[in-house]
């Protein structure tokens, strides 16, 4: 076991070194968001909290501001970009340590492959934080439900989308009250801090920011428009608006935006149905871990595939969760989840090809744009397939739940 741990850490060091070298070299352009964080924080005194990165929740801004402020106090402000990458590496290593403690090798090897598959975006954004927090909540749900509730809420505070996993975390009856109570306390604290330092408008600004966005070129809903753009580039406009993500506008994009909204609504209705079923089904069940894992994957993947925006870092919300699931589910269910995770790793690698390697071919039409559109279409079809599979697996796992016998006759018979 010690040799396996040593090998895992050696491979972690080698693969992560390659990612960092790529970030400093051929794929350096991906770090622009971290420079944006630094520039925005430099203007915090002038614009105030309400006018600084309004697209991010206040807790996320505070997380990004902490190293910025500390480095400037020490006179090392120029090291901010490096500090963000270092903190992301530390978070990556912490999650690997968590997986190693489970004693299962499959999740460890999956995580070792995940970061290099997705590439430099893993360290050039802060989305690894909410992804790892949700995964840590899953890993601790059975033994420490209070901590799981707090971690789930912290993930939601940093990026509102993880709020979709909270009902699933509270589904198992054994820890339901503790998850809800601890999560409620953590949520009240986060809301209180957000309102105290930024006001009610700043609390809601990330949601309003999303409402005003257009059709981002990588999203599932934009795929038909991008295919048409490949054949008729003059009919469409690919541009960089104030939302700071490349969007496409042209024939049919308004319909595609409407379709994205409808899809989001339908998937939310489906999730509500699954949450209600899980809460009822796991009320007196022996073990609901498989249900919670698949329900979490279904919720996160539904958000990714139905939205009008699909940034490459969104995969950091689901990769840690899939690896955590591999450490939790039983032998019977692990094979199916391993296949699901393998496809997810392929999706991560294709996303790496799209951004940053081939992104310029999606912004300006050239001879290689057609190839990159094919990569985009395949990636998006696989993502849709993963979402559908996660929903189907959730239904199967709910049907397979073993209920604890409550009738004395049934209890004697089972004995």
TrEMBL record:
Pfam families for this protein: GT87
Keyword Transmembrane: yes
UniProtKB keywords: Cell membrane, Membrane, Transferase, Transmembrane, Transmembrane helix
TM segment ranges: 9-26, 70-96, 108-126, 179-200, 255-277, 289-307, 313-330, 337-359, 371-395
Classification lineage: Bacteria, Bacillati, Actinomycetota, Actinomycetes, Propionibacteriales
Protein's membrane topology: Multi-pass membrane protein
Entry's family note: Belongs to the glycosyltransferase 87 family.
Protein's cellular compartments: Cell membrane
Record protein name field: Glycosyltransferase 87 family protein
């Amino acid at each position: 076991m010690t040799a396996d741990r040593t090998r895992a850490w050696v491979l972690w060091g080698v693969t992560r070194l390659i990612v960092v070298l790529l970030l400093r070299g051929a794929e350096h352009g991906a770090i622009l968001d971290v420079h944006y964080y630094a520039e925005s924080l430099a203007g915090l005194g002038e614009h105030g909290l309400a006018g600084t990165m309004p697209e991010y929740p206040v807790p996320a801004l505070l997380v990004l501001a902490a190293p910025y402020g500390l480095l400037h106090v020490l006179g090392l402000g120029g090291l901010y970009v490096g500090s963000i990458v270092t903190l992301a590496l530390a978070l990556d290593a912490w999650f690997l340590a968590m997986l190693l403690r489970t004693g299962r090798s499959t999740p460890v090897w999956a995580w070792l492959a995940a970061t290099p598959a997705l590439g430099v975006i893993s360290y050039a954004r802060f989305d690894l934080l909410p992804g790892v927090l949700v995964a840590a909540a899953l890993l601790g749900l059975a033994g420490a439900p209070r901590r799981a509730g707090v971690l789930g809420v912290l993930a939601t505070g940093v990026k509102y989308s993880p709020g979709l996993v909270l009902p699933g975390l509270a589904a198992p009856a054994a820890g339901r009250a503790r998850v809800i109570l601890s999560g409620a306390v953590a949520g009240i604290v986060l809301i209180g801090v957000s309102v105290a330092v930024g006001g009610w408008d700043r609390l809601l600004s990330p949601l309003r920011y999303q409402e005003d966005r257009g059709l981002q070129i990588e999203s599932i809903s934009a795929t038909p428009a991008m295919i048409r753009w490949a054949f008729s580039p003059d009919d469409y406009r690919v541009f960089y608006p104030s939302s700071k993500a490349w969007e496409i506008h042209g024939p049919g994009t308004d319909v595609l935006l409407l379709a994205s909204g409808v899809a989001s609504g339908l998937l939310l209705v489906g999730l509500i149905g699954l949450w209600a079923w899980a809460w009822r089904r796991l009320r007196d069940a022996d073990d609901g871990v498989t249900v919670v894992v698949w329900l979490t994957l279904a919720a996160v993947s539904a958000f990714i595939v139905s939205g009008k925006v699909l940034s490459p870092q969104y995969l950091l919300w689901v990769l840690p969760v899939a690896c955590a699931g591999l450490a939790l589910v039983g032998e019977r269910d692990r094979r199916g989840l391993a296949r699901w995770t393998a496809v997810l790793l392929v999706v991560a690698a294709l996303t790496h090809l799209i951004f940053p390697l081939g992104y310029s071919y999606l912004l300006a039409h050239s001879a290689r744009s057609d190839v990159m559109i094919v990569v985009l279409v395949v990636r998006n079809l696989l993502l849709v397939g993963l979402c559908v599979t996660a929903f189907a697996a959730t239904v199967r796992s709910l049907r397979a739940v073993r209920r604890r016998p409550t009738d004395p006759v049934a209890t004697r018979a089972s004995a």
